[in-house]
Amino acid sequence: MAISDIAAYAQLSRADIEAFGTELDALRTEIEESLGERDAAYIRRTILFQRTLDVAARLTIAGTRSKAGWLVGTAALAYAKSVENMEIGHNVGHGQWDWMNDPEIHSTTWEWDMAGPSAQWRYSHNYRHHVFSNVLGVDDDLGFGVLRVTRDQQWEPQHLVQPLRNLLLAAVFEWGIALHDFYSERDRADTEDGKRAAKAAFHSKAGRQLLKDYVLLPALSLRRWRRTLAANATANLVRNFWAYLVIFCGHFPDGAEKFAPEALKEESRAEWYLRQMLGAANFKAGPVLGFSSGNLCYQIEHHLFPDLPSNRLPQISERVSALCDKYNVPYTSGPLTSQYFQVMRTIFRLALPDDGWRSVRREWQQHSADSAGATPPR
């Protein structure tokens, strides 16, 4: 059930919660004060690696004739797109590198290789999701409006097909996120002009993305346009599945708690920290898997400090884990495969009402009776 009193759930006194928050504030300050050229070199090196890999992948796809060459090039392109999406675009969009004052690597200027505009994502993700993480009716990312991920969400007959919706969402994840962000941006517009501007921005970015991947780049390959077209579509599909997997394993496995709107009333900074920690989950990863996930294997630390550089999250996680032990606060972490199994179990279980098929049968009988104007059998 959704948590309405975080202090009572965590079994911490107000004094303990404030002390917990003070230690996290101190950790944040320590990391901020230590940022420097080594960190700046990291993101510049990452961008150079991603762009070099992208070019090499495209040359391999267009310049080789064999299936093996196509497979190698497509795999490299998918990885380049994943790095751009998660370790660069997502983290730059969070403002993790704004402290560098580099206009080319800034949250307000970076446009990522995704279907939706970065500006619309920043509002939906940085504000709606990160400020109000896992709060029912407030955080739009809680099931993304198409999945039931907690029993606190009322079951509806449409949820019966959510395992298929889940698969479709994974396959077209960039478009699902783009539409999700667009509707969030449109709904916050105060005027019709604002709504039209949001729609125009979405259509412009989506059109450019489609033109680049499925018209311009294949055309540049001349007679081998089919190879490039197939490679782009496959790389986008792989990137979508990977981004979906990382995001879902950080937000919906067992132990990632949900919160009632009452939890926001007079919420202190320390209680916000505690809610972020209780609502997220890590998965175990080494350096390569961590880099490939945009360091979102450290989802707890990312939610605590969303605007601190991702390359510092492994260092931060050691301190945060120790603080959780000190204050006896749950720290949810596990293997990636285990986390995903838990996510899938939740999605399949919650496709049904809480009392199973009996309720589905009653719903259907009620619907049939209403249509026929009769009293349903008991």
Largest sheet: 2 strands, parallel
As a whole number of angstroms, the C-alpha radius of gyration is 23 Å
| Structural class category | mainly alpha
Oligomeric state as shown = single chain
Taken from the alpha-carbon principal axes, the silhouette is: globular
End-to-end span in angstroms?
A: 30 Å
Tally the beta strands: 2
In helices, the fraction of residues equals 55-70%
Proportion in β-strands:
under 5%
Strand order of the largest sheet: 1-2
User: What is the tally of helical segments?
Assistant: 15
Mean pLDDT: 94
| Strand/helix succession | HHHHHHHHHHEHHHEHH
What does this structure look like?
With 378 residues, this protein is mainly α. Helix content is 64%, strand content 1%. A two-stranded parallel sheet has the order 1-2. Helix 2 runs antiparallel to helix 13, helix 5 crosses helix 7 and helix 9 crosses helix 14. The longest helix has 29 residues. The protein is globular.
Give me some keywords for this one.
single chain; 378 residues; mainly alpha; two-stranded parallel ribbon; globular
Task: State the gist of this model.
By secondary structure, the chain is mainly alpha-helical. It has helices spanning 6-10, 14-34, 37-63, 67-93, 118-131, 162-171, 173-188, 192-220, 225-251, 269-278, 287-292, 299-304, 313-327, 336-349, 357-372, and strands spanning 282-283, 333-334. It has a two-stranded parallel ribbon.
